[in-house]
Write a structure and sequence with these properties.
113 residues; alpha+beta; 3 helices; 3 strands; 56% helix; rod-shaped
Length: 113
């Protein structure tokens, strides 16, 4: 029995709801694909360390200004990288939530962000 045959026996309202859900699912997949291409940047140390992540929370790039690189300040540099990474991840999470909210109409659907 095809999906069309199954839907033929459904009440109109339920069929419409199913079609809406399928449309939303398709749009969500498109948005997730788009978000994978979008980036967010986090900075620390007044921009001396910058981390770029994508909408999938993958670190794409770490940029460190040469004047920050000092063997004796290694721990500070590590802290700056962590801070910049966390800032980028937070920015990316906000971007994802904003874009997904456009599709879901603000509904909080577990597992989408």
């Amino acid at each position: 029995m095809s999906d069309e045959d199954k839907r033929a026996g459904m009440p109109e309202g339920l069929q419409g709801l199913l079609e809406q859900a399928q449309g939303m699912q398709k749009r969500l997949a498109e948005v997730q694909s788009e978000l994978a291409r979008r980036t967010a940047v986090g900075e620390a140390g007044g921009g001396m360390v910058r981390v770029t992540v994508n909408g999938r929370n993958e670190v794409l790039r770490v940029e460190i200004e040469p004047e920050v690189i000092d063997r004796e300040e290694r721990e500070m540099l590590q802290d700056l990288v962590v801070a910049a990474t966390n800032a980028a991840m937070q920015t990316a999470a906000e971007m994802v939530a904003r874009e997904m909210g456009k599709v879901t109409g603000g509904l909080n659907i577990p597992g989408l962000t």
